[in-house]
Specification:
This protein is α/β, with parallel strands linked by helices. The radius of gyration is 21 Å and the shape is globular. The protein has a seven-stranded mixed β-sheet, with helices on both faces. Bound molecules: pyridoxal-5'-phosphate.
Length: 370
C-alpha cells in the first residue's frame, strides 16, 4: 500500500549499529543487550529490564515467574490480541475475561471485582493502543485482594498514567517491539520489574532455566529459549536513544489528524485526545455505524490507503471455544471491536499523507451520504 497502516522508522543510526554488531563476534548474550536493558529500565524508572524474544515471551514469563500455576485463574480482558490469553494458557492457568470500559478501552474495575474467586491468582491489564487502563482503581483492588498485577504494556512504551510510566506500575510490565510499535527490534520484547529476585528468575527462565552466572550447563528449572539477540538489542538501543523524537513525531501526526479531520465523517476520535501522557501507538477511531466499515476499508484500499480492525475479541475466537464464552457476554468489547477502524499511523507520516487520508474519508462520505 502507498500509505500503510504502520511503518518502522529505521535510520542510518540503526543500520550502523546493527552492522557494528555483525562485524563482531558476540551475537547473543553480549554487552549490547545489557545496554538496551539499562536504557529501558532507566527510562521507565524500574530496577530491572530483561530483553526477550517477544512481548508474548514477556507475558508468559511473567505468569511463570510470579507463580501462576495450573488450577489458578488469571483475569484479563477480551479486547486484546491473542498473545495476552495465550500466555495465560501457556502457564496452565484458566483465563477469566471481564469486559472493558468504553472510555479507556481497558479493564472495567467494577467487573474485575465481581470476577474474583478464591482461585484468582493474577490480573493482566492491557493498555490498548497505549492508552492507560483505570490503573489507580485496578491497583487498589489487586492490593486489597492480594492479587498479582501484570501490565500488558506492549502497545504503551512511553505512555504514563498520573506521572508513572506504563509498565512500571504492576509487579511486571511487558513490552513488545514488533515493527508497528513505538520502537522496534524487528521482533522482540522486554519484561520490566523492580523485584530483583523476579528479574533473576526471568533471566533464567528465558535461558532454558539455566543459571546466567557462567554455570551454563547447570539447569535449575524448566525454561525456554526466549533470548533477545545482540542484533535486535542494537536496533533497540538506537531506537531508545531517539525515543523522545519518535514520540514527538507521533504526537505531531495525531495533531495533524485532529486538524485535518473531516467533520462530515461519522468517526469518533479517541476520547483521550490530546493527552500529553499518551505515547501514540495507533490511531483507532470508532465508526458511528459498524456496517460502514468494510465498504470504507475497501474504498480507502482502492486509493492505496491501508486501514485495519483492532482487535478481534478473544471471546469470539474459534480457538477459545472450549471456555464457553458467548458472543454477547462482553457488550462493551463487542461495540468497540465492531466499530473500530485503525487508520494509517507511523512516525515518519507526513502532513500531506494525513491530508490524503482525511480527503479520502471525506470523499467516501460524500459518495455514501447518510
Ligand atoms: C496488547 C499486546 N499484547 C501482546 C503483544 C504480543 O507481542 P509480540 O507480538 O511481540 O509477541 C502485542 C503485540 O502485538 C500487543 O499489541
Amino acid at each position: 500500500m502507498r500509505i500503510p497502516l504502520a511503518r518502522p522508522d529505521i535510520t542510518r543510526t540503526e543500520v550502523d549499529a546493527v552492522l557494528k554488531v555483525l562485524s563482531q563476534d558476540v551475537l547473543s548474550r553480549g554487552p549490547v543487550l545489557q545496554r538496551f536493558e539499562q536504557c529501558v529500565a532507566r527510562r521507565l524508572g524500574v530496577g530491572h529490564a530483561v530483553g526477550l524474544s517477544s512481548g508474548t515471551a514477556a507475558l508468559h514469563l511473567s505468569m511463570v515467574a510470579v507463580g501462576v500455576e495450573p488450577g489458578d485463574e488469571v483475569i484479563t480482558v477480551p479486547f486484546t490480541v491473542p498473545a495476552t490469553v495465550n500466555a495465560i494458557l501457556a502457564s496452565g492457568a484458566r483465563p477469566v475475561l471481564v469486559d472493558v470500559e468504553a472510555q479507556t478501552r481497558g479493564m472495567d474495575p467494577e467487573r474485575l471485582e465481581q470476577a474474583i474467586t478464591p482461585a484468582t491468582r493474577a490480573v493482566v491489564v492491557v493498555h490498548a493502543f497505549g492508552q492507560p487502563a483505570a490503573m489507580a482503581r485496578i491497583e487498589r483492588i489487586c492490593r486489597s485482594r492480594d492479587l498479582v498485577l501484570v501490565e500488558d504494556a506492549c502497545e504503551g512504551l512511553g505512555s504514563s498514567h498520573q506521572g508513572r510510566a506504563l509498565g512500571s506500575i504492576g509487579r511486571t510490565g511487558c513490552f513488545g517491539f514488533y515493527p508497528n510499535k513505538q520502537i522496534t527490534t524487528g521482533e522482540g520484547g522486554i519484561l520490566v520489574t523492580s523485584d530483583s529476585d523476579l528479574a533473576e528468575r526471568v533471566r533464567r527462565l528465558a535461558n532454558h532455566g539455566r543459571s546466567m552466572d557462567g554455570a551454563w550447563l547447570d539447569q535449575q528449572e524448566v525454561g525456554w529459549n526466549y533470548r533477545m539477540s545482540e542484533v535486535q538489542a542494537a536496533l533497540g538501543v538506537s531506537q531508545m536513544q531517539r525515543l523522545d523524537g519518535i514520540l514527538e513525531a507521533r504526537r505531531q501526526v495525531a495533531a495533524w489528524y485532529a486538524e485535518l479531520w473531516p467533520e462530515s465523517v461519522p468517526l469518533k476520535l479517541p476520547a483521550y485526545w490530546p493527552d500529553p501522557e499518551i505515547a501514540w501507538f495507533a490511531l483507532v477511531a470508532q465508526l458511528a455505524d459498524p456496517a460502514d466499515r468494510d465498504g470504507l476499508i475497501a474504498c480507502l484500499a482502492d486509493r492505496g490507503i491501508q486501514c485495519g480492525r483492532y482487535f478481534a475479541p478473544m471471546h469470539r475466537q474459534p480457538a477459545m471455544a472450549r471456555f464457553g464464552w458467548k458472543h454477547d457476554d462482553f457488550p462493551v468489547c463487542n461495540q468497540l471491536a465492531d466499530s473500530a477502524l485503525a487508520l494509517p499511523f507511523f512516525t515518519t507520516m507526513t502532513r500531506a499523507q494525513v491530508a490524503e487520508v482525511c480527503r479520502a474519508l471525506a470523499d467516501w462520505r460524500a459518495a455514501n451520504p447518510v
